[in-house]
TrEMBL record:
A Pfam family the protein falls into: P16-Arc
Predominant localisation class: cytoplasm
Location(s) in or outside the cell: Cytoplasm, Cytoskeleton
GO CC, any one term: Arp2/3 protein complex
Sequence intervals crossing the membrane: none
Name assigned to this protein: Actin-related protein 2/3 complex subunit 5
Function statement: Functions as component of the Arp2/3 complex which is involved in regulation of actin polymerization and together with an activating nucleation-promoting factor (NPF) mediates the formation of branched actin networks. Arp2/3 complex plays a critical role in the control of cell morphogenesis via the modulation of cell polarity development.
Length: 131
């Protein structure tokens, strides 16, 4: 007897599941803001056309950076790899499109630019992988 074929989850469904898992990791690491941010920045949802998926991923990153005391931002940015800095800059630009979180994101942008330099901004603007 043949088993009915199960439908494969769509790319967006897999991305949503991955984002939910990242959110759990962020919540588990909130007492260690650097680990929470690194978890939030892992596996960005490049390639999706779904605004819902992009917004969900952005919310996870905002949740991670919201848990960082302002005095600790520079130290945490210092701990990020170059790739993580670029991904964070992409999320910051994406987040700046949303009005409600702008002031906090601008603080992160200024500190990240000081650490990563203008090259980080140029890589984000030139990269076709959008968030």
């Amino acid at each position: 007897s043949r088993r009915p074929q199960q439908a494969m989850p769509s790319d967006d469904e897999r991305l949503r599941a991955a984002i939910q898992e990242r959110e759990k990791q962020v919540l588990q690491h909130m007492s260690r803001p650097s680990a929470a941010l690194k978890a939030a920045l892992a596996d960005p949802p490049y390639g999706t056309e779904s605004p819902e998926v992009r917004k969900s991923s952005m919310k996870v990153v905002v949740k991670a950076i919201a848990g960082v005391p302002e005095k600790d931002i520079a130290g945490i940015v210092e701990e990020l790899s170059g790739e993580e800095q670029d991904v964070l800059m992409k999320y910051l630009y994406r987040g700046l499109e949303e009005v409600e979180a702008c002031s906090a994101l601008l603080k992160w942008h200024a500190i990240l630019t000081d650490k990563a330099g203008v090259g980080c901004i140029m890589r984000v603007l030139a990269d076709r992988n959008k968030l």
